[in-house]
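Practice problem 4.
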């Protein structure tokens, strides 16, 4: 390794550990000089700012001090490995789920999940929505093998708490008063049909069907998925869901290869 490469590695280790080694821009027994101390402070400050940006509602729910403590713990165990700082924080929901005591209420884990999914949906690639007119050419024999494609922004979350009203209230106003969240296992859909993100809860069968579509299931396949969820009329339910998804902009036109 070149002298420059070795110096760069030592510099990185010193910043990550917040402990400049003797001989790296500092004399033993002295304080960092030449602006090196700024790097020690700026690294974590920038990552903490990225977490606040990516988890704005969680930040508001916790408050500045508690969020800063959480951010520092997360950064210590999950240093950034992305070229774009936009994606820093991808492991935060799992980090909280693994040790719920890191937050004052377990529902805040779901709040973090919703924050991250909303940001991911907003940044997802645009899609041309599928319309009723696009289905006009389908013949009866075409339907069993027909594949429908969800928009790329679709996120299907399994949540344990009814955090959506809290998320909306805090997203609208930082000082909003909120009720105690209630335990409620359910699925949440998040997607972006145009400029703004949409979200709503979904029954287990609908969530399973959308996950199946994301894996490339045919119309017949996801009727089977709906039936497996306990629906006595899967074909009728599938038709009802298809109409709703078209109205909501949840499905995209299949991309034509260039």
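Answer key:
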């Amino acid at each position: 390794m070149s002298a420059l490469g070795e110096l760069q590695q030592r510099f990185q280790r010193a910043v990550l550990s917040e402990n400049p080694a003797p001989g790296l821009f500092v004399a033993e027994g002295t304080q960092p000089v030449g602006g090196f101390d700024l790097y020690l402070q700026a690294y974590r400050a920038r990552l903490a700012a990225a977490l606040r940006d990516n988890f704005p509602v969680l930040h508001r729910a916790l408050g500045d001090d508690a969020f800063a403590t959480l951010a520092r713990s997360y950064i210590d165990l999950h240093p950034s490995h992305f070229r774009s700082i936009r994606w820093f924080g991808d492991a935060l929901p799992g980090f909280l789920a693994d040790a719920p005591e890191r937050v004052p209420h377990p529902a805040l884990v779901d709040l973090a999940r919703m924050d991250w999914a909303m940001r991911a949906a907003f940044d997802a690639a645009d899609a041309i929505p599928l319309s009723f007119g696009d289905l006009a050419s389908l013949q009866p024999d075409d339907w069993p093998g027909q594949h429908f494609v969800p928009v790329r922004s679709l996120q299907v979350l399994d949540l344990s708490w009814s955090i959506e009203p809290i998320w909306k209230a805090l997203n609208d106003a930082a000082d909003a008063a909120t009720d105690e969240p209630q335990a409620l296992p359910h699925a949440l859909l998040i997607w972006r049909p145009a400029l703004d993100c949409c979200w709503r809860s979904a029954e287990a069968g609908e969530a399973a069907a959308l996950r199946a579509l994301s894996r490339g299931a045919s119309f017949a396949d996801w009727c089977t998925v709906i039936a497996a969820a306990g629906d006595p009329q899967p074909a009728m339910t599938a038709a009802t869901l298809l109409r709703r998804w078209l109205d909501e902009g949840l499905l995209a036109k299949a991309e034509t290869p260039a």
